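Second attempt. The first submission of Sodium/bile acid symporter family protein had a stray character pasted in from the spreadsheet, which I only caught after the job came back as garbage. Lesson logged: always re-copy from the clean sequence file. Corrected sequence (292 aa) follows.
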Amino acid sequence: MQGDVISGVMLPLILAFIMFSLGLGLTPADFRRILAQPRALLVGVLCHFVLLPLVCYLMLTTLGITGVFAVGFMILAACPTGSTSNLLTYLARGDVALALSFTAVASVMTIFTLPFVVTWALGHFLGAARAVNVPVGLMMGQVALVLGVPVSLGMWARHRWPARAQRFEPTATRVATVLFVLIVLLAVVKNWALLRDNFASLAPFALALNITMLCLGLGVARAVRLSRRQSVTLGIETAVQNAALALVIASSVLKDDAMAIPGALYGVLMYAGGLVFALAMRRFANTQPHAA
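This time the job returned cleanly.
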């Protein structure tokens, strides 16, 4: 019963607040701004929605990770970028406006893309019968409910009470961070035996995936001659995932706690890789003050 309360009530509510706090930092101008730099948007979409799931699948296949853990990593790869990517972008002296804009756009796109990736992963790694049992339309509605509605409410609150919303936003962000840590800890405690038995194989994979995508996002952006600030931002946006959503999809939608373990692990380890990356990029920017 306690597990049902955590999976069915606490996780969705915490995710909703996290997304509400993201909405408090957004305005319609953020969506319009990204249209003014369509090349950065297209590269971000390519890296996040195509390369990330593809690289994740290739790494899973190469290393022989299968079953529910493989599905868990594919769920994670199909999630939008995490809101904390904005903080890492700031630390890295990247393009914070691009980070905010892409995070918002990615959250909307995920409503349509995530159900199809998850359904494919279930069929591929667990058999067609498991995939058929997941109605794509229902999952789209659930993802829209926990992503789109809270973000929209946050944006509406900022529009309706701009001064109050801007004062409350830093507090909301801190509370959201604490709540995210809480749901990761809940997932770890709830699945401690599985995590303990599989940590040695899953943790290195999660860290390797994170580092690979940080470098790949940065490299692709630089290859198409985006600015240093935009490239750093897209590296972070490609690798920092909304692990909270991965936990909700695994535990609350698919009702399989084992699938939540990859999301919980990645949710912790991505900050280690992301912070090192951000500080390295910040130091590089300090040595090249006139870099684009």
